[in-house]
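Hi X.,

You mentioned you wanted examples for the new student's onboarding notes, showing what a folding record looks like when two proteins sit in one file. Here is a clean example. The first protein comes first, with its sequence line followed by its structure tokens.
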Amino acid sequence: MTHIVAREHDLLVRGAKPAGSGPSVHGVPPDAFDELRKFMQTPVEGNKGQTEVLARSTLHGQQHALRLRQWVGVICTPQGTTLEILPKTHEPEHLQDGVTASRTMLFKMLAAGGNNYRAALPADLNAAGMPLFEVVLRYALEVLKKAIQHGLPHTYQEILEERLGLKGRLNIPQQVKQPHHRMHLLHVKYDEFLPDRPETRLARLAVERIARLTRRNDSKRLARELLQALEHVSPSRQVKQDFQSVKLERGYRHFAPALDVSKLVLYELNPLTAGGQSRATAVLFDMNRVYETYVAHLLRSQFPEWEVKTQVTGKALGKVLDKSVFRLRPDLLITAPEGVIVADTKWKRLDPDQIPAYGILNADAYQMLAYSEVFQKDQSTKTLWLIYPSVSGLPEHLPPMKLTGERTLRVVCLDLLKDPPVFTGIHEG
């Protein structure tokens, strides 16, 4: 069993790690590398709806290599190799400290992004010291446990059976066919309030799958306890149809997070075919999307008087024969007392040495101009934000950039290492 811990944009090489390579280069056994290459070259949907691959194929000297991108998570190959990819947020002197800190940061960002990770883990569980794959599985179990303890959804189901006494209604069409030697038995039908319905069947299947995937004894034990609570529920045999049939009545809304993690387990942790006979188990997150969601969460919590919308659609830069062209989708649309602010989140590192723009791409500035033209056309004050993670070496206060049309582009930095994280550049003129 091989466990490799890498970070975004690191390099994976086929075979042994070359002598003299830095900590961002990782050797991968050849058979596992071949499986990873097939899997990571499968196109996926990016944050803006575009198609992209998880890693770029390249060479490192004479060795085949994969350059990771902004996707983090875990990939497990059939050969037993586990690749854990963490965000590039911490770079202390001691590598293990950096791994622990990066895991902690990722969990915090994921918890702000949806119900999947809002369950509290046991206090005695060292999540930051666990492999990410096991943490995801444990989070799913804790969410399922909370939902099941709150109560399983039930529904009335018609029961048909043959019995000695009358219960419910007599099933006359079947009773008239009863042979003489069984006339003492009655065919009846009645309604019974049972927990066997699409939502609980999906939860049962998810728990069974986690029980097979996890290698931790405490997680296996919790899975067995949940299976006992679901003993009167059969596992889903038609996952897609059951998800389509989900309908939570008002009294069962507490079960919605359990369905979220069931979808994560049954779809995103499912073995994914990546060409030929290659199969890998993976759960991956696009850090562009995770960061955008986290920034929106922080803005809503720190500035409750603002209205913060994400991924706003429906607007375009122009038209051709009454058909919209060049559709726009800013990451954030913020309605503040002073007007609408258009913002894009950038999970990139600014360069303190590239004064005065610090490495901001021309294309990003042009995109913000396009957003402003459409979303701020009726405003006299036009403020635009690019929100980057803070990096050491940047000035504490970055001056605003004056753009054409009386527009102001501000570089807002988010210090992820502080608790709570702090924005700088929001209120500066």
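Then the second protein repeats the pattern, sequence line and then tokens:
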Amino acid sequence: MSKPKRHHYIPKSYLKNFALNQDSKFFVEAKLTHEGKIKPELISTVDMCVGKNLYTIPNVEGDDKYAIERYYAKEIDEIYPDIYELLVNNEISELTEDQRRKVILTTMSLFFRTPKFLNLNAKYLDEILEYAVANHMDSNGEVKFKNDTYDLNFHISSIAEIREELAIQNKLDFLTNHMNDLHDFVEYKMQAGMMVVNITSDIDLITSDNPVIMRSHVGNEFNLFDPTNIIHIPIDNKHYLMIAPNTEGALRDQVFRAVHCDVMFALTTNLQVEQNAESWIFGKPGTVLAHIKDQAQYGEFTPENLNHVSEMEAKSKNLKKLGEMLDNFGITDQRSISFLEKLLKDPLHRDDPNLLDTHRELRKLGWIN
């Protein structure tokens, strides 16, 4: 079997849905977040979001050292095209338990498999070694330091070897922990509802090298297993997946579908994608450049933009309250349904396709007379 060395932490099967197809080769428009301009040439998805030997297991011989990369290739990257087609197919409204698990597994892997956690730990290791040497080395060059993570005891002459040993352990911890966390999280989110949103405005969605946006809808500090977390991930230039907070009332065999035509909504989504990126944002040719221009244009303090902002703030406040009710009571609780119907009588929300579709779906399922 081949021995993979360049590992995609964002797989090509995901990247291709934001790319230009040229004779079955895929290219994206891309921009580094710290640079003001997009790259002058399109970049092949072969060269995007890759790391050398990222998933190669240290100190393991033979083919076993490539077990994680091969797991991703077979169990996630290979099946994602089918999952993507399922998500964007408007005719599908029900999911089997297996389909639901695969949706969560393939999309949430994009959160856990990125090297951001490995890099953060590597940075922390460097800082700890520097601190230990600067503050806990005696006149003979002996360094002794202990905290909740490390128990260091070495001579300064061996710092290179110590750094290498700790780096290997750091990588082993990353490889083990991120796989365990991914599978625990998949089972945890089986209790959450999900929705695919179709963007019908002229604004195209972009994505990034860290595409999964996960935040508490009530503003809690980040905690992976916080039940109030709401998750967004763009899945192509016109669709994104939303995984709702965990609730007992979630309709777990359903995938809700919604349409958004509001320009400001799409702009805000793209801004969140950029803010969540580690280093890169990218998309179909012209979409990243359009994003840069749109943010400048709609960021101006014109009366029209200010009115948009005011309306969005009011909508956000109402939808936040609805979200809290869904979180506390579930979507099929009469209190949630009553508030949903109240919003649909409000001029701000009465044409909201998301709320209308939700109301229609609840009626079809018999929860509304």
